[in-house]
Amino acid sequence: MLTDGAVRRGYWCECWTQDLSEEGVPALRASLDAYSASQADRWVAVTLRTISPALDSDASDVAWAWLSEGRIATRQALLRCEPCAVTVTQGQTRITWTIRPVLFLPLAHRQGVELPACAHDFKPHATD
Question: pLDDT digit string (tens) for 21-67?
Fold first, then answer.
């Protein structure tokens, strides 16, 4: 049974891209579990600042408008537990960042529990 302290409030953040020249479905490119509104919107802000030099002028204007004004509205919405999205279109590619309030549940405690036999077969691979 979960106790009140076991559930943690936070935000689930995702970055999706979609090729607008085709009728393809959006593709998930990245995700992040954030534990504060500032951490969630900072993830989007850092990404937008990083890619902004490569954006065309229209997409760059959208990015910097969100960074200068939209970020405040996003943070306020997140603090009200409302989901948010930021979208930039570069050429034929739409990039959308979503942030949703969530409750994070703890993982099952494994100490003192008999693991299945296959768990002991796992051998980490050496890195190159």
Answer: 988 899 999 999 999 999 999 999 999 999 999 999 999 999 999 99
The answer for 103, left when phi > 0, alpha when psi is -120 to 50, beta otherwise, is: beta
How far is the C-alpha of 39 from the C-alpha of 34, rounded, in Å?
6
Smallest Cα–Cα separation from 72: which of 46, 113, 38, 97?
A: 38
Q: How far is CA 19 from CA 23, 47, 94, 95, 126, in A?
A: 8, 19, 7, 9, 37
Site of tokens 């204007």:
61
- pTM (two decimals): 0.78
Over residues 74-89, mean pLDDT: 96
Q: Give the bridge partners for 84, in sequence order.
A: 99
| Contacts of 106 by beta carbon, 8 Å cutoff, 6+ apart | 2, 6, 7, 8
